[in-house]
Design goal:
The complex is a heterodimer. By secondary structure, chain A is of the alpha/beta class. Helix content of chain A is about 20%, strand content about 30%. In chain B, about 30% of the residues are buried. The chains are: A alpha/beta, B mainly alpha. At the A-B interface, α7, α8 and β23 of A face α2 of B.
Chain lengths: ~475, ~80
């Protein structure tokens, strides 16, 4: 890829009119059609130079809008399908959004003050004049400590850094992905697919057998998802619906069991697991069928992506690194003196191979979704009978991890008798359900007499003492 | 309590907690059709590890993932032997 591709549309048409398709659950659109017509009802020019919130619920519509907006909008803010409506105003404010592309199923209406609202329709219409006038900033959302998303700044050059080949080859490639293409992992697959062939998009909540049947009908050759998605496929009884040439896992630690099971189910396929993060970009892909990654990846001279391990944590320096966070969070961007991004993923070397140990600072990865314990502890601590709490991960062979919690209760006073433990834990779970996404609700809550303060590493302990921030020290329960 | 009844009881308990509608659990019932989502299964497997003392999925010896409720029971029965 050149350092600054002119626009996504120009990039995918550099080798000629694209022959691929975008397969949604309700409609299919040929990419060639976008050369002549638009999904934006003739209103593309209204979005030129604007900061555009993309809030559509339908992934096919989102894909079409992304193809049209790069090189036109000054900024595109990709709002994933599961973005909580309460966070949309803060996202819009941080992004200085002044336009919105939406559809009827959008989870949240665009905040007041955004006057330009454009619909997107897979029935292409009107004429399309594809004039690139700027390098569009692509903004992706990632979880923040308090649940409010952080906005990560990319552009087409950083997002396509991992694409070493952008011209379609002689063999037709049909990608399918379980991911939401508005999150980093899914966006990577979208960008590969529109350059090299076609893409089958999963609808939110679509059942695995139905999605695999659509993927098969489209002639899927390459398919990607998290290890959790793949375990779901393996337990669905419908894995044999497809016979892909390439199976990719990313977003969570891929264990040997899921790699072996995929190898057995798809003996003809390359089964690869990849590491990427929204901030660091794509770091590497492992194709040898084994969990972890070769130690030779670290400090490899001349590598396109420079990987280092500092304080047991993986760092990445590459052209795919994000430019930073947008708005108030800009100072929180974790970049080392050499420009590398601290991924926050802890690794350990054993016999010439690195293995992932989990996230630094207690961050929990549930099925590819990041959970900050502090957000859940804040909900638990708001309960009148909770004095303090500790939220932590319990490892899971199904979703990588689940969330569990320990709480210390407040002392009884003469004026109030403490409810029974079963009633309290039920009440706490109910409170969590009211204010948190399902994957953040603790699977179990244990009432303990005290929490003992420990730190998972000396560095964390020092950092916590220095910052003296509440919750900076991770605590361990004493049963 | 037998392994089967422990597993059945935990399916019901997790379904209630996660507010999922559980289908009738026959041996040929596909897990994907039983009403539980991935998160529910993750919780179920953790609970079964607590109550039965085994987690076949983390053992490193699962060659095939269970597809039906009967497969799921047999997986645990095989590890408990």
């Amino acid at each position: 890829m050149p350092d600054k591709p002119p626009s996504l549309w120009a990039s995918i048409t550099a080798a000629g009119t694209p022959a691929g398709h975008l397969y949604g659950a309700g409609a299919t659109v040929g990419l060639a059609g976008l050369a002549r017509a638009s999904s934006l009802g003739g209103r593309l020019e209204e979005l030129r130079g604007r900061s555009v919130l993309l809030t559509v619920s339908d992934p096919l519509r989102a894909a079409l809008a992304m193809l049209e907006l790069d090189g036109v909008a000054a900024r595109i803010v990709l709002c994933p399908a599961d973005l909580s409506p309460e966070h949309l105003p803060s996202v819009a404010r941080k992004a200085a959004a002044d336009a919105c592309v939406e559809d009827a199923g959008a989870a949240a209406a665009a905040p007041a003050g955004i006057g330009t609202r454009v619909g997107v329709d897979p029935q292409l219409s009107g004429e399309a004049r594809r004039v690139c006038s700027c390098t569009t900033e692509w903004v992706l959302l990632t979880s923040g400590t308090t649940g409010v998303p952080k906005l990560v700044r990319h552009d087409l050059a950083t997002l396509t850094h991992a694409l070493t080949d952008t011209r379609p080859g002689p063999d037709s490639i049909v990608w399918a992905t379980f991911y939401d293409i508005r999150r980093y992992g899914g966006l990577q697959i979208f960008l590969r697919a529109v350059h090299l062939g076609s893409l089958v998009l999963a609808a939110p909540g679509e059942a695995v057998p139905a999605f695999l049947a659509r993927a098969r009908a489209a002639g899927v050759t390459h398919i990607s998802g998290t290890p959790s998605h793949w375990r779901k496929v393996l337990m669905s009884g419908s894995a044999a619906t497809i016979a892909p040439r390439y199976v990719r896992l990313s977003g969570e630690i891929a264990d040997q069991a899921v790699l072996d099971a995929l190898r057995a189910s798809y003996p003809q396929a390359v089964v690869a697991h990849a590491f990427a993060s929204t901030e660091a970009g794509v770091a590497f892909e492992v194709r040898d069928g084994r969990a972890g990654f070769p130690a030779s990846f670290i400090d490899s001279p001349g590598a396109r992506v420079r990987l280092t391990v500092v304080d047991e944590t993986l760092r990445v320096r590459a052209g795919g690194n994000a430019h930073g966070y947008l708005g108030d969070d800009a100072v929180a961007f974790q970049q080392g003196p050499d420009g590398s991004i601290d991924t926050g993923d802890r690794v350990e070397e054993r016999a010439g191979r690195y293995y992932f140990l989990g996230r630094q600072g207690g961050v929990i990865n549930v099925g590819g979704l990041k959970v900050y314990p502090e957000e859940i502890e804040a909900v638990l601590n708001a309960h009148p009978w909770v004095r303090m709490s500790l939220v932590r991960a319990r490892s899971s062979p199904i979703t990588g991890a689940i969330v569990i919690a320990d709480v210390v209760l407040a002392e009884e006073t003469s004026g109030a008798a403490r409810p029974e433990p079963e009633i309290l834990t039920r009440d706490l779970i109910h409170s969590c359900r009211q204010s948190l996404a399902a994957y953040k609700v603790p699977a179990s809550i244990r009432i303990v007499p005290r929490l003992r303060c420990v730190a998972s590493s000396l560095r964390e302990a020092v950092a916590a003492w220095v910052s003296a921030s509440p919750g900076g020290l991770r605590r361990t329960a004493t049963a | 309590m037998s392994i089967r009844s422990t597993i059945t009881s935990q399916f019901k308990q997790v379904a209630i907690e996660q507010e999922r509608k559980l289908a009738t659990l026959t041996d040929d019932r596909k897990l994907i059709d039983c009403g539980l989502d991935s998160l529910s299964f993750a919780i179920l497997v953790a609970r079964l590890e607590d109550s039965l003392g085994v987690d076949p999925f983390s053992s490193g010896n699962v060659s095939e993932y269970p597809v039906s409720f009967g497969d799921f029971i047999r997986l645990y029965e095989g590890f408990a032997r």
